[in-house]
Amino acid sequence: MTTVKNRIPVFFSIDDRYAACLAVAMKSLISNANPDNHYHLIVLHNNLSEEHQKRIGALSTDFAKVEFVSMEGKLSEINDRAGSRLRCNYFTLTIFFRLLIADMFPQYDKGIYVDSDIIVPSDIAQLYQIDIGDCLLGACSDLSITGIPVFMKYLDEAIGVGGRNYVNSGVLLMNMKKLREVSMGRRFLELFHKYHFDSVAPDQDYINAMCKGKIFYLPKEWDTMPNENEPEIPNPKLIHYNLFSKPWNYDDIQYEDYFWKYAKESDYYEEILAEKEAFDDAKREEEQKMLEGMLENAARIMKEEVTFRRVFESGKEQRL
């Protein structure tokens, strides 16, 4: 019988746009999971089609069960504006769902959240077993933006979390019991509606600003991101194709072999190949403009009257 001790909840959050990525991510996770554990793979979704649910749900095994949870109506008060957009131009509520997980699943005191653009070449139970003590979250420094001076300055001056202390929200080891105690979801919504913070990375900036001082820094192998300014990690435990470093769009991306290994084994392989074929110069130019827009926004936000750093350091608001 499966016991609470070896029941491992892993949360994802997607819409139709990332269905193929999620299928490949789950394929890798399940392929490397220890069947002596039980993995509860929970997909929080916004209008994910029945077809995608059926195809992804088919990945379930005796020890890894996929469950879909509709988030329709959740966070509907968050509107499409500059400070709520992913990569400056793409609005999706799915990026904020991770902030509600602790409250939505009171049966769990601990859990893992991961983005869908990942590969897990190790047993994710090893991540779950890391003891983060009384910290609210375990996460890795966001190494995808090191070497970009504007972003590094933005982290210090706008967020108040400088350099490598700023973590990536795409892989979170959550102390769900403590997150409920500090009412993370409620505090996020209060701050969102009161200050309307402008932001380059909406959910991630809130997490860093609110949880500063209460984050356990995980080994970088658990959120390995392509970055030409950083040397490759020899044996990554989890690879995260963050920002624009997508092997299904571009050639010669660091760690791309890991992705294609599991993509070839997935039900979405032909569709992924078609997407890459369709990713033309116009789309590359569009992404370059997005990056330039992110840099411009970062430079602008630093000069604004209301920033995370100014609000928290003034004493107007308390961190979690």
Explain this structure.
By secondary structure, the chain is of the alpha/beta class. It has one domain: Spore Coat Polysaccharide Biosynthesis Protein SpsA, Chain A. It contains twelve helices and eleven strands. The chain has helices spanning 19-31, 50-57, 101-104, 125-128, 149-159, 176-181, 184-195, 202-211, 256-263, 269-278, 281-301, 308-313, and strands at residues 7-14, 38-45, 64-70, 85-86, 90-91, 111-114, 118-119, 137-139, 171-174, 215-217, 239-240. It has a seven-stranded mixed sheet. Helix 1 links the parallel strand 1 and strand 2 (38-45). Helix 5 (149-159) packs across helix 11 (281-301). The chain is globular and about 50 Å long. The chain starts with 6 loop residues before the first strand and ends in a 7-residue tail after the last helix. Residues 80-88 have low confidence and may be disordered.
